[in-house]
Specification:
Layout lengths: L5 E4 L4 H9 L5 E2 L23 H16 L7 E12 L2 E3 L5 H10 L5 E11 L5 E12 L4 H8 L24 E5 L2 H5 L3 H11 L5
Parallel strand pairs: 1-2, 1-3
Antiparallel strand pairs: 3-4, 3-5, 5-6, 6-7
Helix pairs in contact: 3-4
Length: 207
Amino acid sequence: MSVASVLVLGSSSKWRRQQLEEQGYTFEAMAADIDERAVTVDGDEDGRGVSDPSKLTLAIANAKADALVPKCPPNSFLITSDQVVHYKGTIREKPETPEMCKEYLRSYETVPATTVTAVVVTNVATGERFQQVDIASQQFKPIPEAVMDEVIEGGKGDVMYCCGGFMIDHPKLQPYLGERKGSEDSILGMPLAVLESLLDKAGYKKE
């Protein structure tokens, strides 16, 4: 009798957990205790000046896998991922202040926010890894100041905890969504078609 495979989501993100739950996945969740700022590529000191953010997100997603594989059951499949927002050649982190968040939101009226999301699936039993990067973008229409204030909530709103300082699933921001390229789930943090493809390649069979 074969032992059922265990799916592990290596993330503390409530949004990624929600995405997998909505797709009917049964999984365990654990967060990788790593310093993402210490992960560098191309010799860049902080990893944020690289010309290709795909390299950075893949490096971080693999670093998360390195940290979590020893903690996973031997019959498990581990999902790790990382996302950054790329804007005009720079990588945007979470906004540090409400005003910075407003500046970010205003800037997306003219140039879209581009999300770069790396997904890595590790077959813990074999050690094999399968990885892919998905890119999407979202532009916004002009957002009234009052709406921004409602969304930011004095620095306590969920948008303050999102890289790039924006959300596409916030009810108050949805009326101001502009042109989108790529999938909604990719922008939310987990490109589901990519995930399903990688899980299949790794040998995971959904219950």
